[in-house]
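Q: Here's a chain of 77 amino acids. Please give me its 3D structure as tokens.
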Amino acid sequence: MKTKTSRLISLAGLLLGAAGGYAYYHFVGCANGCPLKSNGPFMTAYGGLLGWFVLETVQEIAGRLRRARRAEQSRAD
């Protein structure tokens, strides 16, 4: 079960990714023929999904490291 903090971190990843996707569309973009980069809403959604995925992955790795440290400490005690 996800905690409130975990959900907020996921939401932050989504929002930061969406902002990054829009910034990429606005400042870099593509003027002709690029189906992904030339569409603002699509690029914003893509960035949001990418940001969510990255922070979810980071949270999962951090959780595994915390559990491994706790297990190591309990074995040492």
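Q: Can you summarize the key feature?
A: The longest helix spans residues 40-76.
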